[in-house]
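Reading a protein record of the kind used here takes only a little practice. Think of the row as the fold of the chain written in a discrete alphabet. A record is reproduced here so that you can trace the correspondence yourselves:
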Amino acid sequence: MPTSDELLELADRCAEKLDLDGKARHIPSFSDAEEQCEEEYEELLLALHEDELFAPVDIARQEELVEQIAAALPEDQRMLIVELADNHARHVWLQQEGAYHVGLAVGRRLKTRREH
């Protein structure tokens, strides 16, 4: 597992690629940031996946499992598992957005402290 410093170094490489408009103080959304530093972000995720706690995610396999479970359910209940999987994906995305914005806020605070 990479050290915290190594993970921060990977995250810094992502941050360096972000297009931040200094005048408007526009901060890109998580999806925009992910697109702007796609390769560096993927490298960060791969580093996190080295730890068994963050086992690799196989989206195709997840969808296959949902389909198998749905097929095993009575027809009137099949949409329940699909709704559950969709809701879980939205929850994960929400958590990711929250972590991204907290990270930005912490970074801005640290920058302000260094400037004083």
